[in-house]
């Protein structure tokens, strides 16, 4: 029977591409989304009935929202991909406590709690895969994105540490760090800013969501069977 993969943040551009890619690879998929029901319905129409394990709306910006989500989803998954997240851009001293809490919950506490939810089953079957989508800014840091860079960096540390802890149980944990990707998150950039940014990238262009999805598919596949605790940079050389 095909493997089951839970995709967090499936309605975003990267999550959408990851879902389509994994379905093509034969995975059965369960989807989490926050608000974009129309996009999830469009995605569901592209998934064969036998491979669709349901879509669940959940607000992961609070502990209560994460707990409510965990109460309605199975613990039995062979793979989990964390694609969810949102950007906060501005001067660090202007951030509110609420904005800090939202970034922390979505990018850190949700992966912690969801991983804890699925790990007992993975340990029982002596197999499993967890992949997190972090960011180049989690490695390098970015002005005006201080808190975002912080939680993305913490995701990388989480992956490195957890991979060591669960490797004896046959579970692999890895992280992808995209550079600039052509998603709605970057719509705030003017054409001039976008051209300048792409000019800094050695490959001369932004990445596409499908290219991130391909990297994630690789990390979930048997082709990467000896890869764990790895930071896969998908950034065009930036």
Please describe what this structure looks like.
- The N and C termini lie far apart (40 Å).
- Strand 1, helix 1 (13-24) and strand 2 form a beta-alpha-beta unit.
- The protein has one domain: Rossmann fold, CATH 3.40.50.720.
- The protein is of the alpha/beta class and 238 residues long.
- The chain is built from 8 helices and 7 strands.
- The protein has helices at residues 13-24, 37-44, 63-72, 97-125, 136-140, 146-166, 191-200, 209-220, and strands at residues 4-8, 28-33, 52-57, 79-82, 128-133, 171-178, 231-234.
- This is Short-chain dehydrogenase/reductase family protein.
- It comes from Halobacillus halophilus (strain ATCC 35676 / DSM 2266 / JCM 20832 / KCTC 3685 / LMG 17431 / NBRC 102448 / NCIMB 2269) (Sporosarcina halophila).
- Belongs to the short-chain dehydrogenases/reductases (SDR) family.
């Amino acid at each position: 029977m095909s493997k089951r993969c839970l995709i967090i943040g499936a309605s975003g551009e990267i999550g959408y591409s990851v879902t389509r890619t994994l379905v093509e690879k034969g995975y059965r998929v369960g989807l989490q989304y926050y608000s974009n029901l129309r996009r999830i319905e469009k995605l569901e129409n592209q998934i064969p009935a036998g491979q669709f394990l349901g879509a669940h709306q959940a607000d992961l910006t609070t502990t209560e929202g994460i707990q409510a989500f965990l109460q309605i989803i199975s613990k039995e998954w062979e793979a989990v991909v964390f694609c969810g997240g949102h950007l906060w851009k501005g001067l660090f001293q202007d951030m509110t406590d609420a904005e800090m809490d939202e970034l922390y919950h979505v990018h850190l506490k949700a992966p912690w709690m969801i991983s804890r939810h699925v790990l007992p089953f993975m340990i029982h079957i002596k197999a499993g895969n967890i992949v997190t989508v972090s960011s180049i800014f989690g490695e390098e840091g970015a002005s005006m994105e201080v808190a975002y860079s912080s939680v993305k960096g913490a995701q990388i540390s989480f992956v490195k540490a957890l991979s060591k802890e669960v490797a004896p149980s046959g579970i692999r944990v890895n992280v992808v760090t995209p550079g600039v990707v052509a998603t709605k998150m970057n719509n705030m950039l003017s054409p001039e800013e976008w051209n300048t940014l792409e000019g800094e990238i050695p490959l001369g262009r932004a990445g596409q969501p499908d290219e991130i999805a391909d990297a994630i598919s690789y990390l979930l596949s048997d082709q990467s069977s000896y890869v764990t605790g790895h930071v896969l940079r998908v950034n065009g050389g930036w």
